[in-house]
Every structure is written in structure tokens, then in C-alpha cells.
Amino acid sequence: MKKEIKKDKIYIIILAILPLIIFGKVLFTGKMLFGTDWVVGEYIQRYFVQENIMSGNFPLWNPMKFAGIPTGEGFLGDIFYPITLFLKMFIPMFILWTLTFVIHSFIAGLGTYLFARELTEDKDISFFGSIAYMFTGIILTETYGGHDGRVIVMSYLPLVLYFLYLGFKKEKFFFYGFAGISAGLMFLSGHIQSSYYVLLISLFFISYLHIDRDYKNRFRNWTYLVSFILGVVFSFVNKYFGFLIFILSVFILPVILDKNFNKKSLRIYLSLIFFTLTTFLLCSVQYIPILRFLPDAARGVSRDYNYSISWAMGFPDIIDMFFHGFSGVNVGQLNTYWGENPFKLHHSYPGIIIMFLGLAGILRSKKSSILNFFTITFFLSLIIALGGKTPFFRFFWMLFPYFDKFRAPELIIFINIFSLIILSTLTVKNIDSKSLKISFALITILGLTIILFPSFYESIFSKNIYNNFSEGVKQMRINNLKYCLNSVKLTILFNIFVIFVVFFLFTKFKNINRFYLLLSLSLFQFFEMYYYSKDYIVSVPAPGEYYKKDEIVSEIQKDMNLLRVFPISYGENDFLNLYGIQTISGNHPSPFYEYQIFVNNPSSVMFNPQTLFDKKNRLKLLNVRYLITPKIPADTTGYPKSTQDMIIFYQALFRNMGFEPYFYGKDYMLHISTDFLPRFFVVDSFVKVDDINGALSIIDKSDFDPRKYAIVEKSEVDLKKVEENLAYRIDSIVYTPNKVSLVVQTNKESILLMLDQYYKGWNVKVNEKCSKLLKVDGIFRGVKLTSGVNRVVFSFSSTLQIFSAIISLFGIILVFLVFYVERKAMLNKR
């Protein structure tokens, strides 16, 4: 027993050390881990949060971009995730970023080790499985895209299933509570879509095991398929009605088939309700406020089917899971990717041994309920990942809530890979020579056909997958296809040799020491995945050097006005925010939908500067004082005719937008607004409109003057008519993330306009009395003033956030209360 406990400790220590080795070249050199999303915006907005927390003010609003956006309820990453929230108080943000991947690689390995140990009762096999999952390509290479939220979700998947399985076996509620805590932490990563997939699979896991174990009818395992078909049929009437029919059918059909209600069903489904309740109680601190923001968010809007199937996995990427490099890679200066995904910055290769053993588990004729479950999960997750490549995805899209708000169905592929890894551990536990032989034959045949008949694959893929690309991209990808078909041959031969050796060892040397065999497989798995993933782990200089201030920033900082800047092809998206300069652009997963309408880009969640080139009045209302562009010569003398024409075109373009050249830097220049509109101003009349489109129809008129009147949406505000010219004075402006105060003295009833984004989370008081927050000029804030002195305070309400935090705390207390009660009952029973 002591030897076994010692082995546990040794394996867990190894799992903790290995991520430090992987990320040591970044972590121990004082550099920053590169990630595309990270460097363009995530670092800067999280640094903004960290700086405010360190100064004793938790920022619920970020005024630095998009005319303002919520933080806690605006999908701002890990803002309430306890591990990183705590570490933010002690560790520089860029070091914490690298540590996040170190910590969660370990959590992924630990969870897999515990879960596989529970399934196989073999520590050596479990260690192999944990190495395979924590260093699988989908976890290691997500660093390059800057997707820490995805990695956090992936890391908690094994722990969630582990605690659920313990609860199922031992019939204890508190294990379901611990699973709920793990799932709640997963949701607090901020990546809703991946977390949602895990929640669905988790509920399916226990209910499937329950039906398989506790009901006896031979058709019991067809319950889900029948229920799914019924749900889809009724979803033609209503999605939520169809989903309800699906859930009820899962509950009822096993009872009908057995003609008997198993009493364990009540306990199982109450346990799953407790698990789900605990999950949402714990993550309430973030998701209750998000529910307030969601109707206004760009991603909160239901999209069409084509949106939901965008960024799906392609069939070439499936072959790439067997032979890394088949569909190419896209990392750094190396761009050989030719698959169907328009923008792929990771790889999903799990290792050839995992593919070999996992496929053998799928092919096994005699299956346990666990093998059946993970086989089904493998195929379900693959169908979803392929999106519109198969007709089946539409049924999921029709039936399950929120599928119509997601895109990039390939994000579910980590569940597919985890299923393969668990199937591999179960295959090693109970070797079946026949399934190993078939698996070896299938992989070998696939590899040899690629080597011997590359033109066949070139013909299939070049004809069918490039219809949506431009001619230039299409030709580039066809060239990449030819290159990859040739370069992958060596990999194929090596992989076939590896699985031949593994097959030989498992089937011909049955008396071989399993410890050394599994240790060898674990080492090979580690080094193989490191070899194929190391190029995705890139270091860049620390933020002080990487985001070094230039002369453009220095010049803008001389301006004492409260203003915004419109950067065009300048720096990283949020670069200016790092120096306290507000912008109308930025990098964010889900800006306000109406803001996207205002900036003339409603079909996207991204910012596109070109959509505003002909919207002069909108730029004025966005409080833009400076426009940044690459340096444009003032004098065209000496340039070729084509270059002169281009210079003249852009000079005229920016002049028509209302800007004149102001400051020339080394590579970039500033244009200054010829009619700058201050952040706060007062008008004495208004017009009413029904919605933002009505407001924009007025704003886009050439004679529109925002200083003359406010465009008020759906308001009962009224102003007394006074035959006197408006006169006002604004003083004592105090501008912070959560609170803005100022004093306005005016000679008549009027409306104060504040050119920050309107949002229902904001309150306003005038002379310490609550007043109605007005939505003016499409997306901005306003408030009615009386004649005389008006002390105006805009404050972001923290009530909902505090209430949500209390609910989350209650969820944790509830779990440990259940744990205490059940443990005490067990002790009394003993």
C-alpha cells in the first residue's frame, strides 16, 4: 500500500514539473508568452483590470475602447476566475499569463490521472493517459492564438467527469457538488461555448451510465437516439419545446421499456440537478450580470445557420489527427496549412499511439458501458466539429439552446481527443489483439494510399474545398496541398513503424514488464507532442519593451482634452489604451451590437476602420480628435504618378472625413479634427426616434449639427420653452471607470450629452436625486438638467455584481454543507 501511495505522489510531482519544462524558456527568462489575441488586446485590457484592482477599485466598466464596455458582464476573460484573480494581486500580468498555461496543463494532467485511475485501477496506465491529455496538441498550441479560456475549460473536463463518476459509484451528493465546483470554475474562464459543450457531455455521461446499469431492456441504450429524433421533430414547432421533449423522453423511455420505474433514477437525476445547480451558483458572479449584457451584445444576437457552421473542422484535419502535417500548419513564418478552416492557429494532433489505441478501443467488439459512452462521444463530438460538412449538425443546431449563438463548431474537438485518450487507457487495460490488428491495418492502409496515390487526394480536396476562397488564396492553398502531400510521407512511414512496434509489444510480448512499457509510451508521447508543438510556444520581449511608447503616443498625451483616437493600421489593437488613450477601436470578443451598427459593421464582432470612412458625423459623435495613419507625404513631388495619385486620394479622403494633417512621426502621422466635439456638452432641444436606425438616418444627413439638438430614443423627457439663448458651463469633471461626476451650470432646462456608450447598468443622479438616464444620438448617454447649478453623477451600479457574488458564495457553502452532512451520516453509520 505504501509503495502504491508513493507511486501516486511521484507521478503527480512529475505532472507538476513537466509543464515548467515546456514553458520554462518563457517563464524563467523574463519574457512574455506570445499569443495573437493576447498581444493585440487581452494583455492590455487585463492589465487595465489588474491596475485598478491594485489601486483598490474593481473596474466594472472599461472606458478605454468602443466608447466604453462592461468588464465583468462583458465577456472579459477570466475576470472572476479565482486562481488568476488571486494571483493578479502579486504577479505581473505577463508572467501570470504564462503561469496560467503551466497551472492548467497540470490540472488537465491531474484530472485525467484521477479519472483514468478510477476507470482502470492502474496507476501506470493512468499516468500514460494524463501525459497524453495534458500535452495533446489542442492544449499546448492554443497558446499561440492567445486562447487561455479554452485551455482552462479543457483542463477541468477530466475533473468534472472524475467527480461525477465518483458520485455515481458511491451515490454521494457531495461528489456531484465537487463536480459542480469544477464546472463552475470552468465557466468562470469566460469561454462559454467550450464550457457549454462540457456541461452537455457531463450530463450525458451520468444519465447514460445510469440507464445502462439500472435498466435491463436490450433497447435501453437506444433511448438517446429516439429522444433526439423526437426532440428534433418537435423543435420545428419551437426549439425550447423540442428540447423539453428530448429531456422528458430520456427520463421516460427507459421506464416504458422496462415497464418499471427504477428508484435509483430519482436519486441520479436529483444529483444531476444538484450538479447543474452548483455549477451555475458558483459562476453566478459572472453569468448573472452577463445575462443583462447578452441582449445588447454582438454575440448575443441569434445568427443564421451559416454563421453557426463557420470555422468548422474540415475532413483534411481528421487525417491530420493520424499524420501530423497532412493538412499543413500555420505558425509564425511557416504557413503550409491548406485545409478548410480559413484561419487556424493550432493543431489537433493527439499523437499516433493515441490514435492507434483509441481506434482499437472503438473497434472492440466486447464493450463496457464506459467504452460505449466514449465511443459514442467520439463520434458525436466529431459530427459537431465538422459543422455543415455533414447534414447532421443542423439537427443539433435546431434542438439545443444557444447553438444558434455559437460559431466555430471545431471548438468541441478537445472532447473528441479526450474520448480517444480514455479509450486508449481502456484498451491498454484489456488488450484485444483483434481490434489492435484492425486498427493497425486501417491506419497503415490510410498512410500508404497517401504515399502511393497523392494525386488522388490532391484531386479530391483541390476540387471540393476551395469554392469560398479568392483565386489568390485558392492557388496558395493548392500549392500548400502539393507540398504537404510530399513532405508528410516521412511522417507517415515513421508513424506506421511506431504503431507496428507498439502492436508487436502488446500482442507478441505479453509477459513484458508493463511498468517499463507504459513508461516508454509516456516518454514517447511527451517528446512527440513537444516536438510538434514547440513552435507554437513563442516568446516576445516583456511588455515594457514590446509595447514601447513612440512619438505618436507622446504627442497625443500632451492633449489635456477628454478625447478618443481613431487608429488606422497602427500598432496592436489596444496599444493606445495601455497609455491611457481612449480609442473607438479595439479587440474584444463581444462589443455592443448597437455599437457595431453605429460603426457601420453590424454583421461582425470585429472593428473595421474602413466602414467609417464615409461617416463623418458618426466620427464626430464618437469624440474623435485624432486619426492615426501611416505617414503620408505633404508634397508629392518626386514620386511616380501612381504613388502621387494614391497620396492625393488619401489626403482628400481624410480631409473629407473632417481631419487635417497635424503631426508627422517616423512611420505614422496624426490628423486632427477640424470640428472636435467635446465629451460633454449641452443642448436645449431634442427630437424623438424609435430606435438606433431612426437616429442614424438623422445623424448621416450632411446638415446634422449635434450641438443644436439631441436625438432621444423612446423617452418621455420634456423641456420648457424659454425664449433665451442657451448658455452653460461645465466644471469639476472627475472621470473614473465606475463613476463620472461633473458640475453643469445652465440658464434653462436642457439635456446634457455624454459621449460614452449608453448601458442600462449606469445610473445618474442630478443634485443627489435619481434621474432618468437618456439614450441619445443613437448609443450615447444623456440626462435632463434644470436651470441653475446641476451636480451630475453617472455611476455604474454594483448591486447586481454584489448580489451575484453572494449567490456564488452560497453555492460553495451549499456544497460543503452537503459534504459535512453526508460525511457525518457515514461516520454515524459506521
Helix count from the secondary structure assignment: 32
Based on Cα principal axes, name the global outline.
Answer: globular
Poorly predicted tracts of residues:
none
- C-alpha termini separation: 23 Å
Main sheet makeup: 5 strands, mixed
Helix content: 40-55%
- Report mean pLDDT, rounded to a whole number: 92
Record the strand order, biggest sheet.
8-7-9-11-10
Structural class: alpha+beta
- Overall strand count: 22
Q: DSSP strand (E) fraction?
A: 5-15%
Global Rg: 30 Å
Describe the structure.
Keywords: Membrane, Transmembrane, Transmembrane helix. InterPro entries: Uncharacterised_YfhO (IPR018580). With 830 residues, the protein is an alpha+beta fold. Among the domains are: 301-346 and 354-398 and 433-508, no CATH class; 549-672, no CATH class; 680-797, no CATH class. It is globular, with a radius of gyration of 30 Å. The relative contact order is 0.10. The model has no long low-confidence stretch (mean pLDDT 92).
Observed structural traits:
32 helices; Uncharacterised_YfhO; transmembrane; five-stranded antiparallel beta sheet; five-stranded mixed beta sheet; 22 strands; single chain; YfhO family protein; alpha+beta; 12% strand; membrane; transmembrane helix
Describe the structure in brief:
With 830 residues, this protein is of the alpha+beta class. The strands form 7 sheets. It has a 5-stranded mixed sheet, with helices on both faces. A 5-stranded antiparallel sheet has the order 15-16-22-18-19, with no helix packed on it.
